[in-house]
Design a protein that fits this description.
It is a single chain. This protein is an alpha/beta fold. It has one domain: Metallo-dependent phosphatases (Purple Acid Phosphatase, chain A, domain 2). Helices cover about 30% and strands about 25% of the residues. The chain has a five-stranded mixed sheet, covered by helices on one side. It has a five-stranded mixed sheet with strand order 4-5-6-8-7, with no helix packed on it. It is globular.
């Protein structure tokens, strides 16, 4: 049994395609949300995920923003990304159908917990074993008798923009494999430049390159 778990693709089709090329033989795929915004391929990422059989697609805060038509955060860079990406988005009906969470094999899979950014040193209590995303930081830790796994970000790693993170989970064998791929994020930046993203957005991605 192989379950591919991804999160925070953020419109980065090139990164998503690399993950699907590397992990071809999964039995199920779960996306923990934030498929859209930031990257230039939000429409294509939503469309590609919709073609995967037996996929579970969970709603993140950026799907919520696109559905409402307004980004309610205070980060100026995030606002610039939203203002550029949202008018180009054409798949609202698809993301409106995304679910809030998915439960299987004694694990809760959701975008995040308590609407918080959860990092390796975050203090949090768990009622369930959990897979989450949202903070773009991949880690696994035990909290009491429960496991917390943040699968990181496929499309917008905030430490190294050239790194893709995801998880492969075999629940039958209780095997959780945190995985990384390296790609050239200039692919992302070049497309952003061709689509005339605001310079502040381009500079933000460049600041995360190593």
């Amino acid at each position: 049994m192989k379950i591919l778990i991804v999160s925070d693709i953020h419109g980065n089709l090139a990164a998503l395609e690399l993950v699907l090329k590397a992990e071809k033989d999964f039995d199920q795929m779960v996306s923990l949300g934030d498929v859209v915004n930031y990257g230039p391929w939000s429409n294509q990422c939503v469309q590609l995920l919709s073609t995967i059989p037996n996929g579970k697609l969970i709603k993140g805060n950026h799907e919520e923003a696109f559905i409402k038509g307004v980004y309610q955060g205070t980060n100026e860079i995030a606002k610039c990304f939203f203002n550029h990406c949202y008018p180009q988005f054409e798949n609202l009906t698809a993301i409106e159908k995304y679910i809030s969470e998915y439960n299987c094999y004694n694990y809760q899979l959701t975008h995040t917990l308590n609407n918080e950014y959860i990092y390796p040193d975050s203090e949090i209590q768990l009622e369930n074993n959990c897979f989450i995303g949202h903070s773009h930081r991949m880690f696994k830790k035990e909290i009491g008798s429960k496991n917390l796994i943040n699968v990181g970000s496929v499309g917008q790693n905030r430490i190294n923009a050239n790194e893709i993170n995801y998880v492969v989970w075999n629940p039958i064998e209780n095997d959780i494999n945190l995985k990384s791929l390296i790609y050239n994020s200039d692919i992302l930046i070049n497309e952003m430049m061709s689509l005339k993203y605001p310079q502040i957005c381009i500079d933000y991605i460049r600041s995360k390159q190593k």
